[in-house]
Amino acid sequence: MCFPIFHAWLTLLFFRLCAVTLRSRPPLVYCVSRTARTASLLSAAPQLTQRYETSLEKNMSTKVAVVTGSNKGIGLSIVRALCKQYQGDVYLTARDTGRGQEAVESLSSEGLKAMFHQLDINDLNSITTAAAFFKDKYGGVDVLINNAGIAFKGGDDDIMSTLPPSLCLSLSSGADTTAFAVQAEVTLKTNFFATRDMLTHFLPIIKAGGRVVNVSSFVGARTLNQCSPDHQQRFRSEDITEEELVGMMQQFVDEAKKGEHKKGGWPDTAYGMSKTGVTTLSMIHARQLSKERPNDGILLNACCPGWVRTDMAGPKAPKSPDEGAITPVYLALLPPGATEPHGKFVSDKEVQPW
Ligand SMILES: NC(=O)c1ccc[n+]([C@@H]2O[C@H](COP(=O)([O-])OP(=O)(O)OC[C@H]3O[C@@H](n4cnc5c(N)ncnc54)[C@H](OP(=O)(O)O)[C@@H]3O)[C@@H](O)[C@H]2O)c1
């Protein structure tokens, strides 16, 4: 190979390596014939850099919304609504890639374009991988909806305890008989501790003007009123810290495992306690954002979707999943410049007492 061509080839290799290092989609212009003239190759090099930078800037300025646990139920309906209303990329995420991709295809058959990323909120590695992906590709996240959650079917008094006893009984057939100690540990692990892990890793990459929505439940608000007066006072206080809240949630689990949770001032509902924790955590994080990023205009709220017909709540619930998505999507799309709600518990688009 004569020296000028070899030199040009080396120059191109250098630019290509830069692109790979920065993990951008390599522009097509990198496919250059080795027989091209040295001079034209060298003069093309700055253009390559420019095209690469332009494509990177385009990604960074594209807005992005991420919804956890969105392969079915309310999460899928949230993604559906965002695909119709949000000016940006919308990510359906799921712990199981197959179920997630099937859901993306079902939306595609409705003419809607959702993107997919695997995300199991119980797996710290999955959370950090996803956070790194969004930081790298978009410079952060504009909208985060923490929707993923679990409930033992009628195992403790969760969702059904809000219903008239007759309806409750009819729904309770086939209720889960898993020991309360196990229900407490497993439910809190996903609904509270894993949601907190999501927030730990995603809050630092929420962009200015961002919106964060934690899907909690009216059951959590009612459960708060069933805690001991001391616990209630701490959950409602303005100075409760994240560490103190985590300690309280762990104390509930530990005492449930010893069969002593009632003596400790906790009610008999694992799902309810997990959602009391999610709402309180939302209030703590909102106060932190106001203090630490006062000029970024980020709004963070907890909400209840209502009682919704999903695998979790069963077929007799009054709201369809699309109706259940209305309040979370309303909070996710609060207009630029809005200053409230922030740090609230919202149901049917209205701030609720806590
Ligand atoms: N339905 C109601 O009446 C109601 C009322 C109040 C609040 N909520 C809340 O609304 C949210 C959605 O509930 P839903 O009724 O739509 O329930 P659902 O139909 O059971 O859907 C729950 C979703 O969460 C996902 N998920 C569970 N664990 C996960 C994990 N570790 N990582 C990632 N995703 C996970 C599930 O994925 P898989 O398919 O892989 O299991 C599924 O996509 C929950 O937070 C729930 O507590 C529901």
Automatic annotation (TrEMBL):
Superkingdom classification of source: Eukaryota
Protein's name according to its UniProt entry: Uncharacterized protein
